[in-house]
Design brief:
The structure holds 2 protein chains of 2 kinds. Chain A contains 4 helices and 7 strands; from the N terminus they run ααβββββββαα. Chain A is an alpha+beta fold. A 7-stranded antiparallel beta sheet of chain A has the order 1-2-7-3-4-5-6. Chain A is elongated. The two termini of chain A are about 20 Å apart. Helices cover about 15% and strands about 45% of the residues of chain B. A 4-stranded antiparallel beta sheet of chain B has the order 4-3-6-8, with no helix packed on it. A 3-stranded antiparallel beta sheet of chain B has the order 1-2-5, with no helix packed on it. Classes of the chains: A alpha+beta, B mainly beta. Chain A: Belongs to the peptidase S26B family. Chain A: GO terms for molecular function: serine-type endopeptidase activity; signal peptidase activity.
Amino acid sequence: MFTEELKAFRRLGFRHVLLQVLNFASVIASGLMIWKGLGIVTNSESPIVVVLSGSMEPAFYRGDLLFLTNPSSEQYKTGDITVYKIPGAEIPIVHRVMETHDVPKSIDIRKYTKSKSKSKPQPGEDSKQDNQLLLTKGDNNYVDDIELYQGLEWLEKKHIVGKVRGFLPYVGYVTIAMNDFPQLKYALLGGLGLLALIQRE
Amino acid sequence: MHSIFARINNTSALLSSCMMALLAAIALSTLVFTARPEGNVSVASVQVYSGNTRRYATKRQDLAFVDFNITADFAPLFNWNTKQIFLYLQAEYNTTTGIKNEAVIWDRIIRRKEEANVNVIGKNKYNLRDLSTNFKNAPPASYSLKYNIMPYVGALTYGEAARTSEPVAFPPRKTRV
């Protein structure tokens, strides 16, 4: 099967192979540009996420795709479905906001966020900003998320990746399958790479 | 154009474009519906007791217990793209210290049109507490019934169905009987 392709390569020369690699790289680069551009437009570090757990059933099942935005000027409201990441935890969590407390600039929010780790504010973190304290809960859970907060009393805007705006069912199951069966991921990448290199157009 | 590979290529391209067009059509077609359901929320009583916080079992916190009546009809919101409607009743108030609070005290999921007629005499499912440990700085609160429509495909929409006609005050704390 490959003798035909190898003969073609010898005929066209090394430059042809380099051209194919360049095509491949430009496809990957444009994909990355679209992803990062989407992240800038929505002001979220990860504007498309896959639902990983069943804690929001029957609304979201494992494998659903969610579209997020993170408006910096807008305050979050109760009922919004937010994706947040606790510092120290790897996976983002998709739950609904149950309580919001809008603390104006004049009050120091650290009075209310007596987290177990009493750390000084990092340089660059302005504790005098108009901030919000949030409490979340999954629709399918009986109690709110306080055990998931790893010592925090409340979530703040800086923990939130974004708010769910739109929804596409089942599409994200591919990424979950690839995580559970890493052989599938390597097989897919290997197959795509091979296909890109041996294509002659 | 006659190899198996080319045939599979063309068929799958056609399948995915048609699928995307169908999903877009479903999502956009639901923008036509602008039904706004009306309802009624009234609060029967509010009582404030002292309880323990969930995390620190020895720290005291004032908790408010609310009894309410809700009637509303959400049937006009159901169409081919409605997967479920999430209802929630929330308390809203601005403390005298300037903090704006909204807390959900009750919620329900409606999955079918037959269940869309809501008539509930209930009490709060979730603890209603203030950031500070008491309600001394809390003025009378409004209670509003809001809904979130979750589609099979497309954008999530929110709305408000009902609100208490006047704010309801938090009474002073009672000692437990």
